[in-house]
Amino acid sequence: MRSHHFCFLVFVCLCVTGICSFAATDVLFLVDTTGSMSGIGNIKTAFSSILNALAHSPCPQVIRYSVADYRNYTDGGNYTAYGVNLVQPFTSSTQETWSAINGLVSGDGGDTPESQLKAMISIADNWLTTSGDLGFGGRGSARKIIIWAGDAPGHIAGDEPGSSGPPPDGYYPALDEVIDALTVQGILVFALNSTDCNHGLNEPYDGINNNIPPERQQAGEITTATGGMLFCSVGSGSSEIGDAIVEAVQCTSLGKEDDLNDVNPFDCRSPGQELKYTLCWDNAFGLPLKDVTIIDWLPVGVNLPSAVPQGTYDPNEHAYYWEIGDVDPNTSGC
């Protein structure tokens, strides 16, 4: 496990804020529910399989779930306002999650491209929002995952007005804007494409009038950039999909906390002064971790005192190693 780096100012003094990450994962099921999604029954079955895999993962107690769907600008309500409709805010209940998924129905749409890119911008901007139309209620400290299913590419900037109706200028985002918004929030995207990898969600697309070159394969670019995966020709799902998503669940955490006053941005350490910090770990796995070592890579200009309990300094790596050994299930320490 690798700790967070120090952040420091080299000109005046060393400034470090307390950093802490938690063993937690938020999973959002996002699906196209336009009229072309005749295979939505298969998607529900795939989602059910994934939900079951997550419920039987090594640390199901740290996972929360949300459900949302997208259609098109002309479909009214939240589809028009945000490109996405929140069906179920984040909950720890798999029963509530399945009820929300099972209640999804397909309809409307208007043209082939859909509003998933607008939807993803809205989701990224509102992941932590706690109330209102987009009150997803996600956790800032959690691993963030979108499981996205559909059968068509998404409208991009320049598609206004399109055959599905006249959204205002600037309504649809560019693909790069979406990727930036997702990566800034640290959201991993797993895409379930209902057809082969050159069609559906990943069909090369350059605008509704074919005038915004070059053609780009949206699902492939989004999943690659965010660290997720693209699955093609998905019918009712497979264990491969569930296994990949379970592997992304964050069951362990490593946090660093220092003795600076986080409220006061001017609380710093000048060169030559000492900074004290604590590293803590948490294992939410239902299984033990074997031979755990915590490694702290130090910034240039930061040195450790000669006596640090239980640790080993490597001058070649400018890093400190603490051999923790075996860590039992559901235990933590510092």
Blueprint (SSEs and pairs):
Layout: E1 25-32, H1 40-55, E2 63-70, H2 77-82, E3 85-91, H3 94-102, H4 116-126, E4 143-150, H5 175-185, E5 187-193, H6 218-226, E6 229-231, H7 239-247, E7 252-258, E8 277-283, E9 289-297, E10 311-314, E11 319-327, E12 331-333
Parallel strand pairs: 1-2, 1-4, 4-5, 5-6
Antiparallel strand pairs: 2-3, 7-8, 8-12, 9-11, 10-11
Helix pairs in contact: 1-3, 1-7, 4-5, 5-6
- Poorly predicted regions are 1-20
What is the chain-wise order of helices and strands? EHEHEHHEHEHEHEEEEEE
Tell me the Rg in angstroms: 23 Å
The strand order across the widest sheet is 3-2-1-4-5-6
Helix count, per DSSP? 7
Determine the structural class based on helices, strands and strand pairing. alpha/beta
Number of strands: 12
Shape: globular
Q: Helicity range of the residues?
A: 10-25%
Distance between the termini: 14 Å
Would you mind describing this structure in some detail?
The protein is of the alpha/beta class. The chain has helices spanning 40-55, 77-82, 94-102, 116-126, 175-185, 218-226, 239-247, and strands at 25-32, 63-70, 85-91, 143-150, 187-193, 229-231, 252-258, 277-283, 289-297, 311-314, 319-327, 331-333. α1 packs antiparallel against α3 and α1 (40-55) packs across α7 (239-247). The longest helix has 16 residues, at 40-55. It is globular, with a radius of gyration of 23 Å. It starts with 24 loop residues before the first strand and ends with a strand.
